[in-house]
Amino acid sequence: MLAQYIRDKGFQEGELKGWKDGELEGELKGELKGGRVLLERLLTRRFGPLPDWGRNQLVGASLDQLNRWADRTLEADSIQAVLAE
Prior knowledge:
- The chain is mainly α.
- The protein has one domain.
- It has helices at residues 2-47, 52-59, 63-73, 79-83.
- The longest helix is centred in the first third of the chain and has 46 residues, at 2-47.
């Protein structure tokens, strides 16, 4: 009886953690996608159509990279300067 209660309680806690982790992951994915779309729009307005290599860099970028590149967009002279690491 006690063992079953402990198993059930552990299952419930694990399920709740899974839901919370999934929500956080979904929020991060949405934030990344929105950041990529916005940065591509800024780069295109500033420098013209984004080359394939630039688009590929955006797709593989972290949120921190996207934020750094967005800041650089304000002062850089080229797409290459914005996306340089």
